[in-house]
């Protein structure tokens, strides 16, 4: 295990923020992880878990031990007539894993192709796209519990998966995800009723085509972080009470909305941002993308301060126009490597 000091994290976060970590280590096993945690205790450092860095906002300096997860491996565990279970190391690249499942004729994850990041981070915010959330295909999550200093297996129902949420978000200092156990289908049960997918799938209803179309649609709409550094959808789609929504739609009849359980309605954050004049608009080096208002882009060498100035200005304008608060999706850190409220 090689603990490095004063490491530049710019290449390791997709928003391309300059961020110098006082301590950095890459771990490839649970033993490495235990050693890294011992080091952090001995040196009184907080621990910041880093996977693909595609859902985080980092300050310019971090006095903490950044632990980059690089646990590899894919292993078949069991199968029945309908499904196969597979254990996947947290450090596997998510998109490559999805492509591999399709070549193995295992189905379920195709709608989630091309989401950046690593497998171990996928349960954290229960990644979702095109009508599918990863939690639907997770059987259990293997973690190292920092509280009890033990490895544990947490069943999917105990992960409390919901929209962009899980217990791992509630308890970020407790669990380090080391492996994810997926239960994937042997026979495709395609979900194609979301967004532009239906039309694109008309001629070929195969899982291979579904994956291809998802990749194609995403490439045509979302900026590539290598060209336009970003963290994907910057704000969550707000979920509001039906009563509140009735007042809103009376004033804004075109508002895109999706009914939710428990008398709630999800509204499209991108539309609210667009209608507030922020699509394609910049404040200094940071702005909302011209093709997709929900994506915040670092157009030059922005710092976290610049990013916050822009997203807070967007929040203010949307709130003034619609009375709706937009909550950012990526995780925000402070100088001590701790998660901060936005
Ligand atoms: C262009 C683009 C498109 C995107 N599209 C989508 C989308 O369609 N749907 C969607 O849901 N998200 C999307 N995202 C967001 C992001 O890709 C996902 O949230 C992804 O799962 C983050 O993975 P990561 O490996 O980059 O995690 P990181 O950004 O490294 O980490 C995210 C959080 O998880 C924690 N974490 C990471 N690894 C572990 C671990 N092993 N154990 C415990 N905690 C851990 C980190 O500490 C941090 O708090 C997109 C991002 C980009 C840049």
How would you portray this structure in words?
- This protein has 342 residues and is of the alpha+beta class.
- A five-stranded antiparallel beta sheet has the order 6-7-12-10-11, with no helix packed on it.
- It is 24% helix and 29% strand.
- The chain contains eight helices and 21 strands.
- Flavin-adenine dinucleotide (FAD) binds next to β3, β8, β12 and β13.
- Report strand order across the widest sheet: 6-7-12-10-11
Shape: globular
Report the sheet-strand fraction.
25-35%
Name every ligand kind in the structure: flavin-adenine dinucleotide
Low-confidence stretches: none
Annotation field: number of helices: 8
**Overall pLDDT confidence:** 96
Q: Tell me the major beta sheet.
A: 5 strands, antiparallel
Q: What gap, in angstroms, lies between the N and C termini?
A: 34 Å
Question: How many β-strands, per DSSP?
Answer: 21
Helix coverage percent: 10-25%
Radius of gyration over C-alpha positions, nearest whole angstrom: 20 Å
Overall SS class: alpha+beta
SSE run: EEHEEEEEHEEEEHEHHEEHEEHEEEHEE
SSE blueprint:
Blueprint lengths: L3 E5 L11 E8 L2 H13 L4 E4 L5 E2 L3 E9 L4 E6 L3 E7 L4 H10 L24 E2 L2 E2 L4 E8 L4 E6 L11 H4 L4 E11 L11 H4 L6 H15 L8 E4 L5 E3 H10 L5 E4 L3 E4 L1 H7 L6 E2 L2 E3 L6 E4 L5 H19 L8 E3 L5 E2 L2
Parallel strand pairs: 2-5, 3-5, 4-20
Antiparallel strand pairs: 1-2, 6-7, 7-12, 8-9, 10-11, 10-12, 13-19, 14-16, 15-16, 17-18, 18-19, 20-21
């Amino acid at each position: 295990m090689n603990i490095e000091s004063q490491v530049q994290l710019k290449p390791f976060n997709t928003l391309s923020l300059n961020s110098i970590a006082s301590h950095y280590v890459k771990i490839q096993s649970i033993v490495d992880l235990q050693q890294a945690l011992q080091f952090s205790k001995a040196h009184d450092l907080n621990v910041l878990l880093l996977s693909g860095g595609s859902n985080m906002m980092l300050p310019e300096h971090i006095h903490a031990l950044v632990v980059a997860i690089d646990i590899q491996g894919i292993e078949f565990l069991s199968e029945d007539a309908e499904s196969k279970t597979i254990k996947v190391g947290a450090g596997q690249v998510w998109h490559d894993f999805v492509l591999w499942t399709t070549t193995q004729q295992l189905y379920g994850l195709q709608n989630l192709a091309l989401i950046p990041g690593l497998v171990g981070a996928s349960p954290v915010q229960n990644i979702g796209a095109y009508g599918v959330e990863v939690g639907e295909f997770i059987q259990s999550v293997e973690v190292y519990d920092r509280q009890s200093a033990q490895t544990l297996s947490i069943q999917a129902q105990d992960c409390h998966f919901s929209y962009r949420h899980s217990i791992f978000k509630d308890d970020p200092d407790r669990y380090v995800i080391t492996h994810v156990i997926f239960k994937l289908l042997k026979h495709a049960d395609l979900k194609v009723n979301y967004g532009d997918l239906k039309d694109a799938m008309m001629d070929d209803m195969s899982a291979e085509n579904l994956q291809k179309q998802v990749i194609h649609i995403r490439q045509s709409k979302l900026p590539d972080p290598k060209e336009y550094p970003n963290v994907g959808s910057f704000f969550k789609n707000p979920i509001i009470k039906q009563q509140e929504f009735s007042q809103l739609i009376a004033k804004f009849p075109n508002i895109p909305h999706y009914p939710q359980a428990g008398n709630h309605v999800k509204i499209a954050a991108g539309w609210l941002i667009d209608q507030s004049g922020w699509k394609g608009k910049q404040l200094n080096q940071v702005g909302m993308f011209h093709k997709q208002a929900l994506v915040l882009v670092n157009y030059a060498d922005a710092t976290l301060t610049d990013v916050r100035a822009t997203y807070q200005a967007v929040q203010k304008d949307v709130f003034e126009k619609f009375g709706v608060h937009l909550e950012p999706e990526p995780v925000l850190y402070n100088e001590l490597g701790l998660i901060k409220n936005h």
